[in-house]
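User: Hey, quick favor. My workstation is busy. Could you predict this chain's structure for me?
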Amino acid sequence: MSAPATAAPGAPVVELDLDDLRRDPYPAYAELRRTAPLAWVPSVGRYLLTRYEDIVRYEDIVHAEKLPEVFSSREDGSLLLRTVGPNMLREDDPHHRRLRSAAEPPTRPRQVRDLWAGAFEKTAHDLLDRIAGRGEADLIADFAEPLAAANLALVLGLRTASAEDVSDWSRAMMAANGNYADDPDVWLRAERATRAIEDTVAEAARREPDGSVISSMVHADGPVELPEIQNNVKVIIGGGVNEPRDVFGVGAWALLNRPEVLDRVLADPAAWRRVFEETARWVSPIGMYPRRLTQEYEIAGVTLPAGSRVTLVIASGNRDESVFERAGEFDPDRPHRPHLEPS
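Assistant: No problem, here it is.
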């Protein structure tokens, strides 16, 4: 089923400059929510869906997530598929559930507490000791990114990969996932990274069970083939470095610029969870993700044909003023309302 290359009759057409979106997407998202919550954007060749919810007309992100039989994760020709191959993020149930169930056990809260928490803490102390005598450090490059990468390598079971390896692989793949300009150098770097991951995963898959994600997938009740494990480890590396690193960095920046909030959080360790949740809402580490319509479907009074590519802009939904009061402000004390995140 090919995707239509033009807007459906009656669909608002909005020209957006990709460079402007990279610099600061939030003004454009606010205008879309106000004037065109469903809009065809020629520069990306898809519809953007930007409003958190509209209970009456069901033209929102939340409703889309409740209709997987209409809003499919399977999208031929996506940059993610080109970068890593078939994977759980581009599968619907039951295939998505089979792969996720195989990979998930080592990341459950009890397993994290019992198996990984001590090692995570040691990694943090080792990084802090390394930079303690320097007098200054880059919070992201010297701490947040290597912390995320080293911990991810541990949980995945990549014993022969360094934190630098995992970070490099993640950056190369994430650049390819956004390579709308079709830069050949970006594709080349991604290909080198994915080949290295495949080799490292193949070596890890031959080891005895060790409680890691790779081990869990190898020994799952349902069959998971080596190429499936390799592709899904690529996906996990892509997001597993960027998302915790970016939430950590944004949250730290927000608190350092709000000393009164920082003081309260330091005095109350339980408040860190609210800081995390508010940070992921305020600046979503993953701003959007795609869906493909499996059938003709009406959104916001516009009938979209089967095959239409719809992007769920969760970064916009998380700044929706009709859901979050003072949505553009960072406020970990705001009344709780679940923020949107990729699924």
